[in-house]
């Protein structure tokens, strides 16, 4: 299977997926990494793994529609079976999301449906939660609202700060994202409207 990974930053989730492909855990290969930001560490990770890397700077486009149209064209030139958002910090248009429906995954650093949007670790802390985590989900037009495939929970301990919690969540992200991509590439995972199915069973 051909996988295209979109990033905006450090790309530690990208790395986890690169490693899982290299180890044969994922039956697929990353055909391209696309970043909306220049100079981010994830691009270096792609270069080190000999993966074609593209920078598509959103600031060079007048609006979201035109950026997403260019992004779509760039992605499709790699003929992906799956598009993986791995810390891609942009809201996508419904047209874009519709085009990739059923083959577009995201990872979000909260136990969805809690804390959609930004600053999830601080919000969990402020709410006095004792549990937090991350979710891999199919992307739909609703921001961070698509069907969840897999979640991992982490504890929040008294005295934790947001950085400590973020580290704990990240470790779990690197476990669950490759696993979900593995399932997808095995043909076991599907999206049906607002549901995720694993081996035909609703998750
Ligand atoms: C992760 O915390 C992910 O959940 C969020 O952005 C972060 C990306 O980290 N959407 P990295 O670039 O994969 O290191």
From TrEMBL:
It catalyses: N(1)-(5-phospho-beta-D-ribosyl)glycinamide + (6R)-10-formyltetrahydrofolate = N(2)-formyl-N(1)-(5-phospho-beta-D-ribosyl)glycinamide + (6S)-5,6,7,8-tetrahydrofolate + H(+). Its EC number is 2.1.2.2. InterPro entries: Formyl_transf_N, Formyl_transf_N_sf, GART, GART_AS. The active site is at 108 (proton donor). Keywords: Purine biosynthesis, Transferase. Transmembrane segments: none annotated. GO terms for molecular function: phosphoribosylglycinamide formyltransferase activity. The keyword Nuclease does not apply. Residues 2-181 form the Formyl transferase N-terminal domain. N(1)-(5-phospho-beta-D-ribosyl)glycinamide binds at residues 11-13. Pfam families: Formyl_trans_N (PF00551). One of its GO terms (biological process) is 'de novo' IMP biosynthetic process. Pathway: Purine metabolism; IMP biosynthesis via de novo pathway; N(2)-formyl-N(1)-(5-phospho-D-ribosyl)glycinamide from N(1)-(5-phospho-D-ribosyl)glycinamide (10-formyl THF route): step 1/1. One of its GO terms (cellular component) is cytosol. (6R)-10-formyltetrahydrofolate binds at residues 64, 89-92, 106. NCBIfam families: PurN (TIGR00639). Catalyzes the transfer of a formyl group from 10-formyltetrahydrofolate to 5-phospho-ribosyl-glycinamide (GAR), producing 5-phospho-ribosyl-N-formylglycinamide (FGAR) and tetrahydrofolate. HAMAP family: PurN. PANTHER family: PHOSPHORIBOSYLGLYCINAMIDE FORMYLTRANSFERASE. Belongs to the GART family. This is Phosphoribosylglycinamide formyltransferase. The gene is purN.
